[in-house]
Amino acid sequence: MKQHSLVLTAKKKLEWTTHTLPALKKDEVLIKTIAGAISIGAELPQYDERDVTERSPSYPKETGYESYGEVIGVGDEVEQFTIGDRVVAFYGHKDYGIVNENKAIFVPNDIHHADALLVILSCDSAKGVLKLNPKEDDRVLVTGAGTMGLLTIYFLKEYMNVKYIEVSEPNTFRGGLAMDLGAETVYKHVGECPIDIYDYGFECSGFNGAFNTLQESLKYEGEICILSDGNKESFQLQPGFFRKELKVIGSSDGWDYDRHSKWYFDQIKGKDSGLKRLFEEVITSQDLVECFDDLSKGRLHPVKVLVEY
Fold first, then answer.
1. What average pLDDT is seen over the chain?
2. H or E element at residue 154
3. Average pLDDT over residues 197-226
4. How far is 166 from 192, CA to CA, in rounded Å?
5. Using the 8-state DSSP alphabet, how is residue 138 labeled?
6. First CA to last CA across the chain, in angstroms?
7. CA–CA separation, 78 vs 68, rounded Å?
8. Closest Cα to residue 293, out of 5, 18, 27, 43?
């Protein structure tokens, strides 16, 4: 069987490559892709060679990591999946993928693929929230209402039951999504955020100015979790960080994808969570190369892109 894979071969240069898939190992599953996503905050800086965490990029690079599809083959010792199951996995912009069964997430049949794809980043944001563990009456500030910020708001409201969630976000549409998902207030300009009143802050924008705002807005001994990729700008500690004896932690990947997915799918089952609205742009896999070019040149500004195969 042939696999078509989207590969970044140089700065702003994407190519579809073709490979023959190997035979399945005993603990692997073969997945036919139904849908995927462009995670703009992570993928676009690599495409543009603007990722500050990678000073000397090397090529070729695999692209993407969020994939949803149907299991069409299983290894001899696979126990968790059968042919016909729907799953989310981490193999990216490919029409077929082979993964270890422990690296696939089971998706109930009645979950829409757009909702299903968000389970990965939802788990990643949840890990950061659980690290700080805010209580119901704590005041929380989230900077940036992109995908990570919006999923952080959703988890804070739906899982942690936090009452006071406020957001710094200049984009009106994204601010509206934040309000719909549970934010109390959205500040369009960082200078509008109150000073010294929040117990916790979540940095989801990737910009140093937003990180500075969190340091100004938190109380004495407040805590900040950085959930953005850190690939846009370098963050700097301000005098207030030391004066107020703040704490900052990082968070990467999910806390437990299987356990989180059970909560997440049960939470959204049979209802409109509003999360599908994060996919402002829907394309086919044949449009991926053009879409990256449009994103890079500023012709598109979606929160997230849904890719259908």
1. 96
2. helix 147-158
3. 97
4. 11
5. -
6. 17
7. 19
8. 43
Q: Which two tokens stand for residue 289?
A: 């190369």
As a whole number of angstroms, the distance between CA 67 and CA 120 comes to 10
Identify the sign of the CA torsion 149, 150, 155, 158. positive
Contacts of 230 (CB under 8 A, 6+ apart): 52, 53, 206, 250
Q: Which residues have CB under 8 Å from 273's CB, separation 6+?
A: 115, 154, 267
Distant-in-sequence, close-in-space partners of 68: CB < 8 Å, separation ≥ 6: 33, 34, 35, 36, 86, 87, 88, 107, 113, 116, 117
**Whose structure tokens read 């991926």?**
288
User: Helix, strand or coil for residue 13?
Assistant: strand
Cα Rg, the chain, nearest whole Å: 20
Contact assessment for residue 156 and residue 140, using Cβ atoms and an 8 Å cutoff: yes
pTM of whole model > 0.85? Answer: yes
pLDDT of residue 191: 87
Residue 231 confidence (pLDDT): 67
Give the confidence band of 233 by pLDDT, cuts at 50, 70, 90.
confident
Domains of the chain: 2-110+270-308 (3.90.180.10), 121-250 (3.40.50.720)
Taking each helix axis from N to C terminus, what angle separates 40-48 and 288-296, rounded to the nearest 10 degrees?
Answer: 80
